Amino acid sequence: MKNSKFMIQLLAMLPVIFIPTMVLVVATLIVDAEEAAFDKDIAQIENDFIETEKSRIRSKINNMVDLVEHRHSIIKQQLHDRIQRRVEDAHKVSRALYDHYKNELPEQQLKELIIESLRPLEWHNGESYIWIVNYDGVLQLGADYMRGLESKSIIDFEDLSGRKVIQEEILLAKDKGQGFLWDTFTKPGEPENRQFQQLAFVKGLGFYDWYIGSAEFLDTATKTTETQLLEAINQIGKGATDYAFVVDTNGNLLLNYARPDIVGRNMSETDDSNLHDLFKMIIKTGLSNSDKFISYNWLNPKTGTVDSKLTYVRAVPNSDWVIGSGFYPNMLERGYEAQQLRVKTQHQQKVQYFTTLTWLSLMGALLIAAIMSAMFYKTLTKYREGLAENNDELKQSNLDLEQEIIETNRKLTTANEEIRNLAIADETTLFANHKYSLKRLEYEMDRSQRYKSDLSLILFEIQDWKSILEGLGKSNTNQLLVEFSSELRHQLRSVDILGRLSVDDFMILMPGINVENANHIIQRINRVLEDKSFMLDRPVKIVISAVATEYQPGENITDFLSRAEDLMLAGKDLADD
Fold first, then answer.
1. Residues 6+ apart with CB under 8 A from 344
2. pLDDT tens digits, residue range 304-340?
3. Other CB atoms within 10 A of residue 290 CB
């Protein structure tokens, strides 16, 4: 009898032990999950700052490379035009003299008249001049330093690569009448075993089996322009830690704001092994067209100390230049430490909230457990007195428990529904949902305002959306949107935010991107969509209407969105007109 009473008391105490223990276990798991999320957020903040800075540096260097490549293409075109014009003018003079005196002067005297009339024509201190060679390879007119070769055959002349340059010129003049060719040749005042790349233009005279030509060295044509480009590049980052530097593929350092003492030196010949290895790595990385950043220690012009630096380098196509720029990660610490402090404060508030909630839950659990224990004790006591007498009470207790389970399941269902509604992803398209899109927009606007960084917003809608929906049906349209969103993500960076503002209105939030680059991205997306079909079993083409705008400091979210929507409406009105 005493043993059964003890067992009843022990069983009645189980809820008092079990329920509070479970509350403590669940609370501990929640706090541990919050701590893990906090640690991840702290690490992500630093990573986001570094990735944003990498994106900015990469964009800057790519723009510089495009500028230099464009200027070089202009130089070569101008070089073509200039050389051809010289030869055409000399050809006109020669032809005029021949036509005027061919019946008045002996042939040899007329030849000498033509040669001496063209001899004074020279440019760049004698580097460029007019030459005349006959189709047998005999030099008739050359530069002053070549006078000793006049009236002699130079048909077997070879450049350093072994090309028979004079024979190529003769074939070009005879077969095509005129044309350009690149070769190498010696310069006045330079060693004879050193030759320089030049562009030549030759044209047959039409008499005496002569052809006339002129050339200009590429390095002479580019020297002035490259000096101007170096100064322009230097001014872009002068005084900042993200200055640009330029080195050629031979190891000559052409520009470096932080180390003017070594500018002009050849890093492949320096006695400093660290500098030698560093610039060897820079040149190798630039020529490889790698998109990765390299890390090394370098002088920080802001602090005057040697700090760790991340640098992006790229070679200029069709040039021997390698351009690079980088940043010092420790210079970003002030920016992301402030954000980390804010996240830490929010974390502490959450932990305090969870702690308070845990104590309240524990007190509630103790109260519920005490009530349940009393009920169990009473029920078990009556059960001991007689199973038959307590049968109805036991059934009622079971009904009460079932009702509690039903109510608990209802609450869990409601909680799960609320969690789904608060999820950041749109279940249909995997875009960020409306609520999260606006929340992230406010966050990026605040960061852009605080760090004075670029922030662009692209609004777009899918043209003929209603027709697509009617033609495909809801299920197929959802699948189309999934494929469409996946294609969009391939065209964007990982830091860009894709959001769905309404049924057919979408947005792309692009930190660190100005409106000009955002418009380039719109053009790139449109080009991809032109060649892309979705839904292979029922091919569908998607056309979007998009506008880009850039955040203006001081704007609130309503003004920013309204300005973007006004641009979208203006674009529609212009299209309708």
1. 38, 42
2. 888 888 999 999 887 888 999 888 888 777 666 667 6
3. 13
DSSP state of 188: T
Residue 510, phi then psi, degrees to nearest 5: -125, 90
- Give DSSP secondary structure letters for 47-64: HHHHHHHHHHHHHHHHHH
**CA 501 – CA 439 distance, rounded (Å):** 12
**409-428, pLDDT tens digit by residue?**
565 444 344 434 445 666 66
Task: Residue 386: count other Cβ atoms within 10 Å of its Cβ.
Answer: 9
Q: What is the CA radius of gyration of the chain?
A: 40
**pLDDT band per the 50, 70, 90 thresholds, residue 261:** confident
Tokens of 69: 């490549």
DSSP codes, 320-384 = SEEEEEEE-GGGGHHHHHHHHHHHHHHHHHHHHHHHHHHHHHHHHHHHHHHHHHHHHHHHHHHHH
By the 8 A CB rule, do 521 and 460 touch? no
Distance CA 234, CA 242 (A): 11
Q: Domain 242-327 is of which CATH architecture?
A: 2-Layer Sandwich (3.30)
Give the span between the Cα atoms of 500 and 516, in whole angstroms: 23
Sign of CA dihedral 358, 363, 366, 372: negative
The beta-strand segments (E) located in 171-234 are 178-186, 195-204, 210-217
Domain positions in the chain are 242-327, 386-422, 434-576
Using CB atoms within 10 Å of the CB of residue 131, give its burial: 0 to 12 exposed, 13 to 18 middle, 19+ buried: buried
367-374 contacts, C-beta under 8 A, 24 or more apart: 368/15, 368/19, 369/15, 369/16, 369/18, 369/19, 369/20, 370/16, 372/15, 372/19, 373/12, 373/13, 373/14, 373/15, 373/16, 374/12
DSSP, collapsed to helix, strand or coil, labels residue 13 as helix
Residue 577 pLDDT > 70: no
pTM of the model: 0.43
Residue pair 313/286 in contact (Cβ under 8 Å)? The answer is yes
Higher pLDDT, 286 or 430: 286
**Contact between 322 and 282 (Cβ < 8 Å):** yes
What topology is assigned to 434-576 in CATH?
A: Alpha-Beta Plaits (3.30.70)
Q: How far apart are CA 93 and CA 205, in angstroms?
A: 11
Residue in this structure with the two tokens 């660290």, named with its chain if needed: 274
Angle CA 436–438–442, to nearest 5: 115
